[in-house]
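Sanity check

After download, print the first record. It should look like this:
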Amino acid sequence: MLKDDSGELEAVPLDPGLINSDNALIVLDEYNDTCWVWVGRKVNMPTRMHAIRMARSLQKSGHQVGVTTIGLATSKFVEMMEKDDSDAQVAESIAAFRAAMDGKWLFDDRVLAFKKGSEITAVETLPPPKPRDDGPLPETVEARTVTETEPPRPAPAPPRPAEEISLTVGEKKAAHLLWATVKNADLAYIESVRRNETTGLKIEVPGVMVLEVEPKGSYLEISPIDFGKSDIAKKIKSEYEAMSKSL
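Expected structure tokens:
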């Protein structure tokens, strides 16, 4: 279990009590071949994004504990945002995660958790067998080369046209807002927000503005409507409105 505290990962002993609203956690679980990512509802966006990014990296490279690499190339990746626990699939993942973490654990190297009776026994490495001496090899028989005429290959099928993606006016306005944001801010965090089976966005420019936007057909619902009083926020709003006039 690794705890993400303001962009710093620290290995901690596995403790189900840490699975709460204040913490962002990564658990490399070799029992279930899973990299679990828990993000509590009170975790700020920079820490949330850092935890997810680091978890993706650890899923591939693992984490070193002493001489052991844990979680190397785990096949499953489960991301759990507590704020989305009203979603049935997220709730199911959270329940599975809590069940996997529950139970009595023993520890090695302070943070390497294992269940009693699951220790891996080292197997003695035997020297390779000596080659047998069965006498001289038989004479090599010269192989005959048979030349066959390869049948003509059929011409490749023509490429299929790319499927057209149709965007609503509200979705196009959301794209304009994102573009106006990244043009005028050195750092921005974008997060998907799902409510009542609809998908929106949360856009945060640290120290400047935090917006929640949701495309609704021909318009884009923005909350709060006032982007902020700073010059950067005013410029983002101005450019967004100018680009959206053409829609």
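If your output differs, re-run the checksum step. Summary of this record's structure: The longest strand covers residues 198-205.
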